[in-house]
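Write out this protein's structure.
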Amino acid sequence: MRRLFCLAAAGFLLLSGTAAAATPPPPRDPDPPVGRQVWPGPPYPGEPVPIVPIPIRPIGVKPPFRVRALVLTFAYGEDATPVARHSLLMCDPPRGTHPDPFAACEALIPVGGDPAALTPLPGVICPTHYDPVTVTATGSWDGRFIHFERTYGNACSLYAETGPVFSFRERSAK
């Protein structure tokens, strides 16, 4: 009961404005004790905050220029979403979640990582039925941003045009 009375009295004092006038903030100590430096603590309302910039020093490590990494996606239909399958391909050295990163990197390195510049595989004959698939490749290749998106008539024509690069789609049951 005593706590409740004290809280109510403090609330009335704060609402009336007499509590703020009754307790002025303590003055700052102009001279800190000799021999030790004291953190002044948080500033008082209306007091400016001293901001001292410190120089930024390089740590001596340069980022690699030769980054060769692409995120590859595969989607059924004429739209790139929803993605049915995706893969990460890194080519220096070949690794990532791609099922065959060595073959995919071997195809992309001569064309500078641009899937649009891939040459079609010779001798691949595909049916002419229309079952569209859309693929994308987004990433960085030797300091250049790569973004590729294309819709192919069917999965066979995708393979004929891009070879092992987008050969990570779901395998159909036989």
